[in-house]
Each structure stands twice: as structure tokens, then as C-alpha cells.
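Exercise: predict the structure of this protein bound to adenosine monophosphate.
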Amino acid sequence: MTKFSDLALDPKVLSAVAEAGYETPTPIQEQAIPYALEGRDVLGIAQTGTGKTASFTLPMITLLSKGRARARMPRSLVLAPTRELAAQVAENFDTYAKNTKLTKALLIGGVSFGEQDKLIDRGVDVLIATPGRLLDHFERGKLLLTGVQIMVVDEADRMLDMGFIPDIERIFQLTPFTRQTLFFSATMAPEIERITNAFLHNPARVEVARQATASETIEQKLFSFTPSRRDRSFTEKRALLRALIESEGEACQNAIIFCNRKVDVDVVAKSLKSHGLDAAPIHGDLDQSQRTRTLDGFRDGTLRFLVASDVAARGLDIPAVSHVFNFDVPSHAEDYIHRIGRTGRAGRQGRAYTLAVPADDKYLSAITSLVKMDIPTGEVPEFSAAPERPRREQDDRKDERKEGGRSRSRGGRGRRDEAPRDTTPRETAPREAPREALRTEEPAPVVSEPVAAAEAPKPERREGERRGGERRGGERRNGRRDDEAVVGMGDHMPDFLTRSFKTS
Ligand code: AMP
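Solution:
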């Protein structure tokens, strides 16, 4: 059996790996590290949970150990699709580079430019970034990518889902042709194949299956019920959720509770809290420091329930999550796989419970055909929608009103979750067969549901990254800089307001 010490890694990296408690490389590490150390481009087909982060971090640290960083010219670049994933890579880097003098900077939205600029100005060996924020820095003239010797693209399939591929292509073009590229994706959609053909040079292709399939370690159950009245389904689902949590007792050490819409994430978290359960929300509209605090609390066990949207919780590597509750049946079948894969990680047992009402039937049949099995039916515990603590009557009325509002405005702007769904043909091109679903934890999305053009939500390409006036600076529209604020209009200034009045 290969040991880390058999791989030609820097002794300082080996000691950090040993201190982290790892002896044997995972299959993706065993395969990818030797190629990466030879300086070859690597195309790694692997999901989160396989140890892929170390498979590029360890050789990077080894290769960068010689040489020094120059001001504003990072020597390597890691691109990750979300802030949380970028932060996770940065944590890995801290763990494995702790015995070296290498420096890093993390460029993600929601953090002030000033601090990040200072780090870049000093010169960094490793720059870890989300694509939007990286280009923001580049366009502000604060960053040169011509010194990049190693470039990593992590979770390329999610980059595709989030509409980042044009940004990735642009970033590739800004880095030297001679760079080494380590490119990771869970699946190889045609668009990803095209990028790798265009930008990777004779890559070594390494591929690993997920270590344990979802079905082996995750006990899935479906709890279906018919609400007493259609407009009470949201309230009654909250009561059922509490009853399920209660009936699980101590077995439910912690849980991620998924809702389809950001607005419901907040309401469900508040409702659990008001019933004495320790819950906090996470979604793209919350500011970064709050997201980080919430995630840290959930990771270290001080927070028991994380109520989440799909995008905010994707790819998070939190090894010990005992339960996942799908408060809503996901309307995109592939999200079911993403969600339940948050539990039963690293060989642990996990439970994934889905709450359903009759209106969810069509979504459930899409899920069962994707996972190629019926989700076993669980016995619905007795639950009462009556609040456990005396709530003011108007609280409930408010909820009911909200619910009525929801069904009326379904699909309307602002009510959908931020899960970025690009409905253009490019994004919905046929992807890998759903056959892969159970083997690969996070399969490529199947063609999205058609959304009427007028209703189609604008894909939120950069979840959270444009908040707080963080638009890409310098872009001109109708002669006006995009970053010029218009008082009272926020970012949403109608185009006609910027047109010239001249009639020439
Ligand atoms: P990743 O796929 O990079 O998200 O890693 C998944 C988990 O596996 C992380 O919690 C890592 O700390 C852990 N891990 C990485 N390499 C190894 C290894 N060689 N042996 C055991 N666990 C590992």
C-alpha cells in the first residue's frame, strides 16, 4: 500500500500531513500527486469527500517551496465556486503549509477589498479566490496574473452550474500559457470537456469513484402527509419537522435542514428557535461574517441545527452531520443527491429524511427516477400544528398570509431560492447520464424545468459576491460607470434612465 512518504513530497509537507493524522493517501491523492509533482497538467474527476483538496494542495506546496513571491504577482491560483469552498481550501492550505514560509491570500466576496489588497501588495505564493472576486481585483489594477505558475480549478462542474465558465476562460487567458493546470470536476459535462481541451496541455486523467455510495451509509426516509388545509402546509410541515426531531431524540446530534427558498430558510430557523431548538439560517443574502460564524458554530458543535439553502450548503465538508432534513422536496432532483450527501460522510451512518405533501409528487417522481429507487416511507409521527409555546395569534396569521403570498407568487422574482439556474441552452445542454447519480455524490444537473421566459429568474451567478455594492468596477454601460451609485436606486437602475436626451 502506498504511503505518503512514498510520494516525493517535501519533508515539511509530509510532517504536516502526519500531524494532521493521515498516513495513507486516498486514491485520488495517490494517483494525482505524482503527476502534479512531475509538472504535468492533471484532470481529476472526483467529488468532495475523496480527499481531492489535498491532492492538489500537497504538490502545490512542494513545488512552490523554492522561489519567492513578488508584489502583486501571485505564484499560484486556486479557483473555487463559492466562498465557503474557497475558505475550505484555505484551511487545508494552512494545515499542510504550516511548516513552510509560504503565504496565501483568500479573495472572496463579503470581505473588504482593503485587507485583501494589502496581502496581495506584499506578494503571496498562493491566491485562493472565487472567480468574480478575482476579476474584481484584476480590473481594479491591483493584481497581475502573469506570474501564476500553477493554476487549480476546483469543482468545475459547479462553476458551470453557477455560470462561471466565461470567467474561468477569461482567467485562463490572463495567466501564462506555460502554467501548470490542475483541474477538478465531479462530472465531465460537454462544456467542461471543451474547457479542458482548450486550456489543459496533455493532461494526466485521473478518476475516482466516491468512496461510499449514498445508499450504503445514508438511511433515507420519506414522510408524506396531507395538510389539513392547503394554506396550512407550511405551518404543519414545521410542526412535523419538530416532531421528527423529537422522535429521533439523541440520535439527532445535529442536522442540516434544507428549504427551497431563502425566505423559508429564515422562517424555519426562527420557528425552530422559538420552540427552543438551537437553529440558525444560512443562505446567500446573509453577510459573510454571519455565514462564517454560523458555519463555524455548526462545525464545532455549538449550533445544532443549520437551516440552509442549496447553494449555501453545497460541497461543505462537515464530517459529522447525523441528519439531513429536506423540509421541502427539492424541485431539482439532483439537489436531492447534493443534500443527502451532507450526512453519512467519511464512513459514518447518516439519516436523510424528506417531508412531502401531495403537491410534491412530481418532484418526488423525478427524484426516484434519478436515484433509481423509491425512498422508503417513514411512519409519520403524531404532530400537532398548534404552537408549543403560546404564540400570539397574529404570528400564525402572519405565517399563513406569507404562505398564501408564496403560492401566489411562486416563481416570481425574489421568492425563489438563489440556486443559480441558467436556463439558456448552453447551461442546460445534455449532461452525463443520471445513471451516475448514486455513484457520484453530486451528479451534473439534468435539464432544468422550462421556466417561462417572463418568469425566468435571472441566474444569480455570483451568490453573495455582488452584495454591498461589490459590482465589478469599471464596466461602462451607456457611458456611465457601473459602480457609480444612483441614490435610491441600489443596483437596479433601469437602463432608460441612463440614455442620453440628445436627439441627434
Ligand atoms: P476533500 O475531498 O478534499 O473535501 O476531503 C474530504 C475529507 O477527507 C476532509 O475532511 C479531509 O481532511 C479528509 N482527508 C484528506 N486526505 C485524507 C487522507 N489521506 N486520509 C484520510 N482523510 C483525509
